[in-house]
Amino acid sequence: MATIELNGLIKRYGQTTVVHGIDLSIQDGEFVVLVGPSGCGKSTTLRMIAGLEEISGGEIRIGGRVVNDFQPKDRNIAMVFQNYAIYPHMTVADNIAFGLYRSKLSKSQKRQRVEQVAEMLGLSQLLERRPSALSGGQRQRVAIGRAMVRDPAAFLFDEPLSNLDAQLRTQMRIEIKRLHHRLGTTSVFVTHDQVEAMTMADRIVVMRDGRILQVGTPLELYEKP
Ligand code: ADP
Ligand code: ADP
């Protein structure tokens, strides 16, 4: 688990500034949701934390260490995307194990770890299937499994549920929260959906035009008279 701190974080594309000096402190184990309309800079912010996007100014700290110059693989965080990002030609087991491709674990240790993760996600019976033989929710769980298997210090979720139908979306919100309660891993979850933010967040960060508009618990932000 790790804290994540953003200090004066800036992103420019050419002359256009899309993130205007964001300050945010995320606690160990906290589930923070970044919410705001399309184009307000949520995904860019997340990708900068992941190291998938270069920053134009400011500082990112993970677990107290400045990671500005760290490669994604050295940040010990895992990203879960909306488009699953799983491999169609590989089995569920191999897709999950792919998260360990750099690890020094032995083959049997990897297998054990994959089975452990599959068990937590209710995928134990599906390990030898290919993604084409899975439901949308099962595929999303495989993507989460791939991220989980390395036991990262933090999870970054980039609108992971927006391709799912309404019923499945509700179910996956509950599953992700249950997993968070079980693992306690610091999580940053991006969505444009206020209901999703309200039902999932320990703390909500409302963004507009590359800035933070408001920060608070769901109760503080939405249930005031
Ligand atoms: P959100 O995730 O809130 O929908 P994004 O972070 O994806 O917003 O985008 C923020 C702004 O940055 C948008 O105006 C978008 O058009 C712009 N943007 C994103 N990526 C690029 C890029 N590679 N080049 C130029 N502008 C970009
Ligand atoms: P290489 O060029 O050697 O593949 P990269 O810097 O391109 O190295 O990144 C690959 C590594 O970055 C992966 O091992 C993985 O740990 C990390 N990585 C890349 N994308 C993600 C992601 N979406 N979520 C978590 N880690 C990622």
Automatic annotation (TrEMBL):
- What is the protein's major site of localization? membrane
Q: Which family does it belong to?
A: Belongs to the ABC transporter superfamily.
A Gene Ontology biological process in which this protein takes part is: carbohydrate transport
Say if the entry is tagged with keyword ATP-binding.
Answer: yes
Taxonomic lineage of this organism? Answer: Bacteria, Pseudomonadati, Pseudomonadota, Alphaproteobacteria, Hyphomicrobiales
Protein name per the record: sn-glycerol-3-phosphate ABC transporter ATP-binding protein UgpC
GO MF term list: ABC-type transporter activity; ATP binding; ATP hydrolysis activity
Which part of the entire protein is covered? Answer: 1 to 225 of 356
Q: How does it sit in the membrane?
A: Peripheral membrane protein
Where does it localize?
Cell inner membrane
Keywords from UniProt, A to Z, are:
ATP-binding, Nucleotide-binding, Transport
Domain ABC transporter: residue ranges:
4-225
Asked whether the keyword Signal is assigned, the reply is no
Q: Name one GO cellular component term.
A: ATP-binding cassette (ABC) transporter complex, substrate-binding subunit-containing
